[in-house]
Write a structure and sequence with these properties.
9 helices; alpha/beta; Rossmann fold
Length: 325
């Protein structure tokens, strides 16, 4: 069996796959920017392809029995280019990590731990309650609006409820929704998002990125939010219109934001690419992180176990989990 590990997100996990599969295999590790002839040789005769990317630059995958993504998102995978009959699967298993990250981000928006630490380390007591500093906000009693009530949205809801928060959610109508209505104080259809936003102290964007959710948040939505509300994006950058978000933060139309997913990413031509077209780093109410939500030891263990399970399933003539195609 020949297994191709294609791209930076997967090439470092060869040993995990070796340890988790039940068949002998030849492994080929390949960079996205590898020369065309190197790609062609790697893909030739491949049985399993593990990658985050499949587009016009990929050689033919006619011999492949499974295309396995190492994550949940497939915005870099053009499913229509994959030959019919080749199972193409993703993995989730990052719900716990993302949920913990979002709780941290909400708490940090209230407390700004970095600023507390930097001022006391610099010898300043300006943020101390003993010397007149204003109080921090609490999560308890506040309302969190969850936009996208899938696995991640539900995992965050559980934790927010444990903090004493009210939780409302918006999601397009799905057959499985009735099973989870009890988890939230109110469940809106995605078409009623604008009705939900004025009630929220915090807004979590955790929906799937697709044509329908591109620019889901723009000037109209920020105008409906409280001027003290904070928004958190752990979906994909373009779900929120970049200019509208920057303007809302700069002009204090909303209270703050934590952005973990971006509008630009490094590539071979610009390995130090800035994450946005606007200088979010200059805004004191914008918290930034480099697309790390959910990247935890638990996520890695669970995902690669499922990837190995899918390879073993294919080898045994069984159906793999989480098929996209």
């Amino acid at each position: 069996m020949k297994i191709v590990m294609y791209g930076a997100p997967v090439v470092g996990f060869v040993d995990r796959v070796k340890a988790g599969i039940s068949v002998d295999a030849e492994f080929v590790s390949l960079a996205y920017d590898a020369p065309a002839e190197e790609k062609a040789a790697a893909f030739s005769g491949a049985d399993i392809l593990i990658t985050n990317r499949y587009n016009e630059d990929n050689p033919s995958a006619d011999s492949v029995k499974l295309i396995q993504l190492p994550g949940a998102g497939y915005d870099e995978v053009k499913l229509d280019l994959i030959p019919d009959g080749i199972p193409t699967c993703n993995v989730y298993e990052h719900d716990t990590g993302v949920a913990e990250f979002v709780m941290l981000a909400m708490l940090n928006c209230n407390w700004n731990i970095g600023r507390l630490e930097s001022t006391i380390k610099a010898g300043s007591w300006e943020l101390s309650s003993r010397y007149g500093a204003p109080p921090a906000l609490e999560l308890a009693g506040k309302t969190l609006g969850v936009v996208g009530f899938g696995r991640i949205g539900r995992a965050i809801t559980q934790r927010a409820k444990a903090f004493g928060m009210n939780v409302v959610a918006a999601n397009r109508d799905e057959p499985w929704l009735d099973e989870y209505r009890h988890m939230v104080d109110e469940l809106y259809d995605m078409s009623a998002l604008n009705e939900m936003l004025p009630h929220c102290d915090y807004v979590l964007v955790s929906c799937v990125y697709c044509e329908d959710t591109h620019d889901l948040f723009a000037e109209e939505q920020f105008a409906l939010m409280k001027d003290t509300a904070a928004i958190f994006n752990i979906s994909r950058g373009p779900v929120i219109n970049e200019k509208a978000l920057y303007t809302a933060l700069k002009e204090n139309q909303i209270g703050g934001a934590h952005i973990d997913v971006w509008y630009r990413y490094p590539d071979a031509e610009d390995p130090n690419q800035s994450p946005a077209h606007y200088p979010f780093e200059t805004l004191s109410n914008a918290h930034m992180s480099p697309h790390v939500a959910g990247w935890t030891d638990g996520t890695i263990d669970r995902r690669w176990q499922l990837i190995c399970d899918n390879i073993n399933a294919i080898c045994a003539g069984e159906e793999p989990k989480n098929r996209l195609k």
